[in-house]
Amino acid sequence: MKRFRKLCMLTGIWTLLVSVLATGCTGISYSGDKNGELAQPFLGKTITLVTANHPWADAIRPLLPEFEAATGMNVIIQGFFEDQLTQKLTLQLTTGSATPDVFMYRPLQEGKLFYKNGWLEPLDDYAREDAEYAYADFSGEAIRSATVDGKLAGIPVIMEQEILYYRKDLLKKAGIPVPDTIEELISAVRKLHDPDNGVYGFIARGQRSPLVTQVSSFLYSEGGDFTNGQKATINTPEAMRAFSIYGGLLRDYGPPGVINMSWPQASAFFAEGKAAFYTDANSIYKSAIDPARSNISEHIGFASFPAGRSGTRFYNITSWGLAMNPRAVDKEAAWAFIRWATSKEIVLETQRKGNPGARYSVWNMPGGTEGFPKEMVEVIKQEGAGGVDHDRPTVVNVAEARETVGEIVQRVITGDPDLQQAADKANAALQAILDKEAE
């Protein structure tokens, strides 16, 4: 089976490269060998790939030798932690460096800033004019997440949605059905909250900036958003209701110190069996069910995000994409790599390792779901074709905007009695960010 997969993957590489080189949008001419097959089309070429220290990078790394053998291209890969990655990219791209040629980036975190600074090569012509690439196979929400000012700034590699994690054993013992609505979630959390016996009703991100992405689905499901066009809307009744629900769940049914928790701490807390419910991204499910941390992994269930007053409106986004440096010396070589790494064949291979991809077809391929729990696959398929294409304010200065929103929720967690006044002040701060960027 492994030999068959490897043969199929190599065949896929050759097919992709023939298409890359033959398609008119690349402008490359080539000659075949006596059998009509392409000799290594990028022989002697070297590109640098910079990645986050992410499971996707771990999955792509062992596949590179086959790509290099088929193309003649040498791929130098460098990995960094998220903050280090942003710092490295900012430094190199600011100086006009031609490297890295290709890099991982977070479209909703750095996308607008990088594009505004001219650090992202638009990929529209490469992707859309190549019929063999099957651009239409990508999720529409994923593409919109990676689009800036109408231009495709990167290709999605990791897609994620917010889902509900829960303890099946606790719900079954209490006779409580899986919540379909936020009101049902609040009721179930209240009933299962039992800190005296080591189980809290609810856990999620409570740290100021990290919590923003996870409160977003509460916000959308209650009928709100961070902005409406160029108008800040984080002090509206809908926003206040959503922030109060999320912050209230953490305040009343979360553990001490939750205000300092980002996803690693929250997922570990849930994995240890210390909470009945947990809302977060589906892409971190391995951390949430890690059997090395807990003996309750077999009791963990997955469900779609519960509906609020405006229905179920969860975020459905590209969390990581692949981008091309506009100053790359050989853009055709850079695109050949991106095209290969985001092809159906390679997305299938990386998805087998538990990396949720953005191609619809792969989720229906044999083996396309083997890297995920069966229940989660059903949830991903349900949520994969809908939702909202952002999980934070879509501005250039994302970091400041997230701090501004997160402050409101943290005031709920700490029980601030002047919440509306704080929200009005935060809304004015977000509006100032929008106004400045519109100048």
Automatic annotation (TrEMBL):
Coiled coil: none
InterPro entries listed in its UniProt record: Bact_solute-bd_prot1 (IPR050490), SBP (IPR006059)
Source superkingdom: Bacteria
Record-linked SUPFAM superfamilies: Periplasmic binding protein-like II (SSF53850)
Protein name listed in UniProt: Carbohydrate ABC transporter substrate-binding protein (CUT1 family)
Protein source organism: Paenibacillus prosopidis
